[in-house]
Structure formats: C-alpha cells, structure tokens
Amino acid sequence: MVDDAFHNFPLLPTELRREIWSYCLPHRVSEVDVPIGYEVYNNLDPGDIPCALYTTDVSNDRPPLLTRVCHESRSIALESGSWTSVLERRDYKLPWNRDEAKWGSENTIDRGYWRDTLRDSAHANWTPSYAILYGHCIGDETLTDLAEEAKRFDGKASFVLEYMTDHDSHLRSDTYVGSISAWLASVSPRRKEDLVALRLLPEWLVVVRVVVVHLDFARAVKTGLFGLLGDESVQVVDVASPLVEQLYELAERCERAAPAITVAQDFKRVDAVEMDALVKRGAIEAYHDREVGERLRPAILFRLCTKMCNHVKKPREEQAV
Asked: Labelling 174: which of 110, 130, 165, 221 has CA 20 to 30 A away?
C-alpha cells in the first residue's frame, strides 16, 4: 500500500506551515437563517421535496476540519473564526434571530455555529412567505441587516430571488389572512429600506435556483468541488463560473447512480443571460430602479447532503409490495 503522506511537514518552517494551514481553511456561505425545505421548493408537503436541507445546514455550521487536526491548525482557524453559541444570536440585530435561537432548529436547544470573519460571506434564505407563515421579519430591515452582516465578513452577500418577487404566490389558505394583511402593510416601507440597503454593497448575488448534491463525504472530498477538505457544503456560485456546470453534472451523476430516488430534482439549465435578465427584471418590478439592478448577479446555490436522503434502495412501488 502506497503511503503518500508528507512526513516532513512538521519540519517545514513555522511560517510556511501556518500559510499552508490557512490555505486549507474553507470559504463558506454563512447562512443567517435556516432553510425550510418545503419553502425553498414551494411545496407544503415535506415528503414531496428532493431534500429537507436540514443536514446541509447543520454541516455548514460545524467548525472546519482544521480545528480537529492539531493544536497548530486549530490556532490558525481561531485567528479569524470562532464557535458561537446559538443562544448568543438573540443579541444580534438580525431580525430573523431576534425572537428565538436559530428558529426552525427543531428540538436542538443550542447547536452552535462557526463563523469566520475573514472568509465567510452572508446569505439569507428568507422570503416574504416565511413572514406570512411564521410571523418573522414583518416590517424589519432584512437586507440592511444582511449587508451589515456581510461587512462583518468579507463584504459579500446573497439572497434568494423570491425575496424580491414573492408577493402573494405562497398564499395558500385563509388561515394566514391576518399575517398577510400585516405583511402587505409593510411592503412599501420595506422596499424603500431595501433600496437603500442594496446600495451598501457594490455587488449582491441573487440565488435563482437551489441544487442538492447527494453524495457521501469521502467521495465529495475527492471531487475537489467542496473546498480543499470538503467542508464547504453550501456554495453560492455566480452563474458565469465554470463551477456551476461541474456541480450540476455531479448532482446529476449522483442522482442517476441511485437505485431509486424519492423525488427527482430539476436539472434543466437556464441560460446565464436569461437568468441575469430575470434578476434585473425582478429588481425593476420590486424597486423601480435600474441602477440597483446592475449590482445584482444571478447565482445557483449548491448544497452537499452527505445523508443521501433522497436515495432509496428500491422504488416506492416495490417497497409497498
């Protein structure tokens, strides 16, 4: 068996070792809220979505692998990163964490999360339907807070297209009439606040689609598409990047390799020019401002789910027999 370990690494100069450790740290997308699977996929039936997304959110919050290699690697990670109690998020200005710790985290009281102010970017999964269904963020300055959070990181931020375009498409029941009325009353002032917030950063990425790669961790690491050590499980990728097609192809291969799947994903490609036009049209309709639309770039959000949650050994009809 070939031993390809670099045994002389400890003998390298300290400065070089530290630089190598630093190079291996992940550049993550720090989600400021929890993705709700049936909201992301516009489907209220949790059993009819490609992925619940909870596993990807949990793995994305964990400390990077370098914190568990040795004392030296851990010290490098801690220079710009820190493990923070979820309960401390109650003190943040972010409106979606103001009322309760990491809302949507099921029965976990304090899961904790990792933040790296030097390498992370900020992302919000929030849409108006979240407010309607859960009563969060109504009238709050969501994009303003997201921009401020981004400035605590590397200055980059992203949000979902539905944040601009989702007005009443998710209103499925009279149950939420009271919430709907409250939200509609807040739309106009929120749009004005958003317009100001969008000018706080030179560029924003707008997620037009979510794709999940169901693959075990060992093989995911070998692809090299999820960071050097495989701990970049959530990525917001500009549609112009070659990485988009690589991740799309990997997600397709993983789905084809499964004996059967619970719910198939839509892997239909959308032209980058069309997506750019879609984002800018959404900005114009929402904010009536062409200039701010030039700050928005379309992107695809890719998630690595190592639980293979949509893979089943036999098709449903065979399992029922």
From this structure: 165
